[in-house]
Automatic annotation (TrEMBL):
Residues 171-265 form the M23ase beta-sheet core domain. Residues 25-84 form the Peptidase family M23 N-terminal domain. It comes from the Bacteria. InterPro entries: Cell_wall_metabolism_enzyme (IPR050570), Dup_hybrid_motif (IPR011055), M23ase_b-sheet_dom (IPR016047), Peptidase_M23_N (IPR040487). CDD domains: M23_peptidase (cd12797). This is Peptidase M23. GO terms for molecular function: metalloendopeptidase activity.
């Protein structure tokens, strides 16, 4: 009988576990600071990092700001400005150290590592488009309990310091799932398709706006099954895995952006 009660209790905890929607607090470069802004009985506060607004979500009766921390942040203090609610003012977040491993890759298509002048012009045009998508702040509150968007083992993790064909390039700003061409990619949470396109480095790409600057992206697709402006539900098909753009083979590159900052997507997944 007692065991039964314990199991029942654990069962309820399990349900609560899935209901807890906050990402993991990881105040390091490439991580997320989850900042308590007081009881949700008060009006919703707003929070900013400089000019960039932050997501503020309600969880278990409290408001929390979600601060995406850029990968190039040095250890020390970051300040956010909070207005409204019971904790208005400047809040200081202590940023710790995280050392990401190095990864060396060989890309057969040399133009993807050393683009020609036409490629560079294209890359600049594409950057202007994707930067605007990543900066966008829509008003609706995001759901942050994400599903892994493809079924497969996690391969290259977020934050790897990358060397392509012996040349240092930008760090790995997403999480790779090792799955073959044609495997389905599903929305990890509700959102609106913000952009689709075929980009020089990222190949066929879908961006989903989950709300308040929480944006996710799916890259190197072989097929895109959604169009911009379309509403998608958690689990809905977005497209299929492929090997378009700068890749060593088929896989899903999944990026998650908060306040215009790529963060570790694993922080949004339930711990195994
Ligand atoms: Zn990747």
């Amino acid at each position: 009988m007692k065991l039964h009660r314990v199991l029942l209790f654990l069962g309820i905890l399990g349900h609560l576990g899935t209901a807890v929607a906050l990402p993991r607090h990881a105040p390091v470069p490439g991580g997320i600071a989850v900042i308590d802004l007081g009881p949700a009985s008060q009006q919703a506060p707003s929070a900013r990092l400089g000019e960039q607004p932050l997501a503020v979500v309600k969880e278990q009766g409290r408001w929390y700001a979600l601060l995406g921390i850029p990968l190039d942040t040095l250890p020390g203090e970051m300040e956010i400005a909070v207005s409204g609610g019971s904790t208005a003012g400047i809040r200081t977040v202590n940023i710790g150290i995280k050392n990401y491993p190095e990864q060396r890759l060989t890309i057969k298509d040399k133009r993807k590592v050393e683009p020609n002048p036409d490629d560079l012009a294209r890359i600049e045009r594409e950057k202007a488009v994707t930067e605007a998508v990543k900066r966008h702040f829509s008003s609706h509150a995001p759901a942050t309990d994400f599903l892994l968007p493809a079924s497969g083992p996690l391969s290259s993790r977020f934050g790897l310091r990358r060397i392509f064909n012996g040349q240092p390039r930008n760090p790995h700003a997403g999480l790779d799932v090792a799955v073959g061409t044609g495997a389905p990619i599903r929305a990890p949470a509700d959102g609106i398709v913000a952009n689709t396109g075929d980009y020089f480095f990222n190949g066929n790409t879908v961006f989903i706006d989950h709300g308040q600057g929480l944006i996710s992206a799916y890259m190197h697709l072989s097929r895109i099954d959604v169009r911009p402006g379309q509403t998608v539900k958690k689990g809905e098909l977005l497209g299929a895995v492929g090997a378009t753009g700068r890749v060593t083979g088929p896989h899903l590159h999944w990026a998650v952006i908060l306040n215009n900052t790529p963060v570790d997507p694993e922080l949004f997944l339930a711990r195994p």
